[in-house]
Each structure stands twice: as structure tokens, then as C-alpha cells.
Amino acid sequence: MKQSAGYDLHCHSRASDGTLAPAALVKAAAAADVRVLALTDHDTLAGLQEARQAADNEGIRLIDGVELTCLWQRRVIHLLGLGIDPQAPGWHCYLNTLRALREGRAEKIASKLVARGLPDLLAEAREVAGRAPVGRPHFAQAMLNRGLVATPQQAFDSWLGQGQVGDVKAQWPDLAAAVEQIKAAGGYALVAHPTKYKMTFTRLRALVADLLAAGGDGIEVSYPGVTPNHLRDLLQLADRQSLWVSAGSDFHSPLQRWTALGRFAAFSSERHLLKRLCPEHAGLLDTAGQL
Ligand code: MN
Ligand code: MN
Ligand code: MN
């Protein structure tokens, strides 16, 4: 059995909430037999330049990417931008707005936790985040460092997860704005991990309709946690709506056992985005069935 699909169109570096530096991530991908890699950090392009250099050294094809946080019908949706031009005008302003939103949210999370009797964790969360925007995983790590919780999961279960006091919603840009920015940068806009929003398929179809109306391109169909039934239903939806499809590991850290670079359920599709992004590597898809 093959351990790697040979490509991976969704992963994270330390530029957002991953644990590996972009160059180390690219090296790990090369070691995992990944020939085509898209770096898709949350709401930042800061890792792309370092990844590009490493990819050139390793002989890997790097696709410039991003995973944008946005709102659709008051739900937080993750939108992948693949094949974007990081130099395109508009990114600077768009990403600055997101950074300010995240910073404001971090302050709010910290003060809400203080109101519940916890110490002020903002400075420590910032330190954990380093150059990356402060998010809930950084607060979880800060809690762990202070011995307030035994595991990051416990931090989410008790304080930061959905419905908990630290689950602060920010007014992210809406789906159409995120699609517009990706398209303005020449990229493809795809809904990431569509079955992870706890939506019915009826609602998901409405999301896809709005995505297409906004000029978007498709959906991710294979990723960790997708069931064979989900995969089949997503491919069927993509087929009916003539969507582009992608796949990726959503890799964040070598410590996460359930995900590894280049690992996700195999499938075949005529409208695999890899064929459009780098036709010279489309041959990788022929062997994917062996995964
Ligand atoms: Mn993440
Ligand atoms: Mn995501
Ligand atoms: Mn992701």
C-alpha cells in the first residue's frame, strides 16, 4: 500500500497554527513522497516565500495557497485559495483587516477568561504564537504551560471550544469577499473540508450555490475524517455542479497521529484541480487508486 498520494493541496506551517517552519514542512513533504504541495496557512501568506525556496531545493512543485476564514449565513467557513499570486494587489489590505480582527478577538478571549477567574493569558498566548496571529490553539498552549489544563483538548473542552466562554466570534469577511480576493489574485476558491461544518447536505448545496454565484470554483472532497459516504456524496455534488475538486491532509503537526502529509482517501475525478494547476503532474492521479 502506498503511504502517500504524491500530492497534498492543504497544509499548515508555523506561519499560522502549524508547528513546522515552512522549510521544514517542505522537507517533510519531500520525505513523504509528496511531489506537489500547496501551503495553505490560515489567513496569511507569510510562509510562502520560505516554502518556495525550500521547494526549489527539494525539487518539489509548490502551489501558493491560503485558507481564508469567512462567514456564510453566520457560520464560519474555511475557503481554500489555490494557485494564488501572493504579489497580487489587495492581499495586503485584506490580510491586515483579518489580522486586526484576530487581534481584537484575542483580547476579547483573554478578558472573558479573566472574568471567569483565570489569569490573563494574552501575553503568553502571543508568545506561543510567535509571528503568527494569536488564536485559540495558542491560548490552549498557554493554559497547558501554566498547568491550568492537562491537555490542549481539555482547554478546548472546558474553555475555548464551541459554546465555551472563550469561543469568541469575530465578524470575519463574508464568503463573497473572500472569493473575490482569491479570484483577484488569480487563484481557485474551494470550500475546505465541507463535512466539518455540521451542515446538512441541503445546506451544503446552498453554500455551493452561493460560492458559484460569487465566482468560486469548487470543494475539497478528500481530507482526514472524510467517510467513504461523504467522499462519494461530495464527488456527486461536484459532478452535478461542475465543480473543481481538491484533496489534502490539513497537516498541522507531526504529533497529530490522524494526519500525515500526502495521506487522504483516494478517489478519481475528471475535474481534479491538480490537472488544472499543474497538468505536468496529472500523472500522480493515475496511481492514486493504489493508496
Ligand atoms: Mn488550523
Ligand atoms: Mn480549516
Ligand atoms: Mn486547514
In words, what does this structure look like?
By secondary structure, the chain is an alpha/beta fold. It is built from ten helices and seven strands. It has helices at residues 22-31, 48-58, 91-115, 122-129, 136-145, 152-160, 175-184, 201-213, 228-241, 273-277, and strands at 7-8, 36-39, 61-72, 75-82, 188-191, 218-222, 244-247. A seven-stranded mixed β-sheet has the order 1-2-3-4-5-6-7. Helix 1 packs parallel to helix 2 (48-58), helix 4 (122-129) packs across helix 5 (136-145) and helix 5 (136-145) crosses helix 6. The chain is globular. One manganese (II) ion (MN) binds next to loops. One manganese (II) ion is lined by residues 67, 78, 192-193.
Associated small molecules: manganese (II) ion
Describe the main β-sheet briefly: 7 strands, mixed
- Uncertain segments are none
Computed CA radius of gyration, to the nearest angstrom: 19 Å
Task: Give a quick rundown of the structure.
The chain has 291 residues and is an alpha/beta fold. It is built from ten helices and seven strands. A hairpin with a 2-residue loop joins strand 3 and strand 4 (75-82).
What is the secondary structure topology, with strand pairs?
Blueprint: E1 7-8, H1 22-31, E2 36-39, H2 48-58, E3 61-72, E4 75-82, H3 91-115, H4 122-129, H5 136-145, H6 152-160, H7 175-184, E5 188-191, H8 201-213, E6 218-222, H9 228-241, E7 244-247, H10 273-277
Parallel strand pairs: 1-2, 2-3, 5-6, 6-7
Antiparallel strand pairs: 3-4, 4-5
Helix pairs in contact: 1-2, 4-5, 5-6
The structure holds manganese (II) ion (MN) (3 copies).
One manganese (II) ion is lined by residues 10, 12, 67, 250.
